[in-house]
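Q: Structure tokens for this one, please.
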Amino acid sequence: MNILYLSLQDFLSKPFLKFSTLPFLISLVIFALLVYYSYDIFFSYIEDVVSGSFMAWFFSFSIVQFSLAFLSAIGGFFIVVFASVFFTMFIISFLTPYIVKKINQKYYNYSMQKEVNSLEILLKTFKFLLISCVLFVVATFLLIIPFVSIVIYYGVFYYLFHKLLLLDVLSNVLDKNNFDDFHKNSSPLYFKIITLVFFALSSIPLLGLFLQVFYIIFLTHLSYQKILKLKANNNGRKN
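A: Here is the predicted structure, written as tokens:
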């Protein structure tokens, strides 16, 4: 049974649409406020710095003010889009066990022998965050090379997105033995391609907030079928 078809069918069902809408609205409100106030604080700071100095004359030009507004908007857009995506991922992570459970009951009836330890999940999360911080520092030092630094920043965001998303799903789908086996090696190429597509979609404002539940659903089906080698039964078509 086609994974994309199953995932869309589940995602468009009433219960899962509710899961998508609530985090979307919460994230939208919080980050709209964040953008508004951070933008205001930024220009208040600039006014305080340049007040009564030669810089005040320089910043009085319309072209300079426009350039500042444009650069701050671009920077704010970049930060807010990805920050909102990761914030939504955090909210959805509390719903992931329920989403996985519903899909398992509906299609696979897989009985987990031993669950993944919460401490192990926390340690892996800390490890991924630490590596990302190091990569961010490297990218910051490379700001003098504009295009290279942007590519590295996107690469860091993707690394963190890929690792945290898979960790969230696989820790709920797999038992401890399968989970450990999966993490002994690099994740299969098809997982990387799928998460890269999801990451690209998440770069589109608002879309990444709304589709987080779909990402969880799709990766859950993918994990059951490709890692555990299970087939979706026909019960899914009856619901």
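A few notes: The CA atoms of residues 41 and 47 lie 10 Å apart. The first helix runs from residue 3 to 11.
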